[in-house]
Write a structure and sequence with these properties.
This protein has 172 residues and is mainly α. It is 60% helix and 2% strand. The protein has a two-stranded antiparallel ribbon. The radius of gyration is 18 Å and the shape is elongated. The mean pLDDT is 93.
Amino acid sequence: MSIFAPLLIVLATFVAMEWVAWSSHKYIMHGFGWGWHRDHHEPHDKTFEKNDLYAVVGAAMSISMFMLGSDLVLGEAAWWPATFIGIGILLYGIVYTLVHDGLVHQRYFRWVPKRGYAKRLVQAHKLHHATIGKEGGVSFGFVFARDPAQLRAELKAQREAGIAVVRDSAAA
């Protein structure tokens, strides 16, 4: 087998995981899963958040794919693409953790980007945290950040329509 197909599967999975992250964040974390996600949106001084349980869910997805692709686990019933899907999920999880928890929330290191795409990621996620509670909000994805000016306009429209309660610091 050439290396092209496995690399394509890893890349496609990585890109697809942004959609998975966006939809699960918008409809699960800000929906029926708010109980796990709430503390991520509230000030606290704890090392861990209930929200970190979502990383365990992502890890379980990746591990499941590794198992489905493993000859050691399933023998001849193993499905070889699953291994590379598992790698794509794992890589997305690593990038997400470094960027989200590390760069944006500064749980692992301190660096505030002054320009470029890293600054755009931070701004987009800070605008996501501009709402109080689970209703409304912008920028539910993460690796592919929309223009902060568009997000601010969308947030303003949500506030004016009564969809979202926006923190005073972000209302301008």
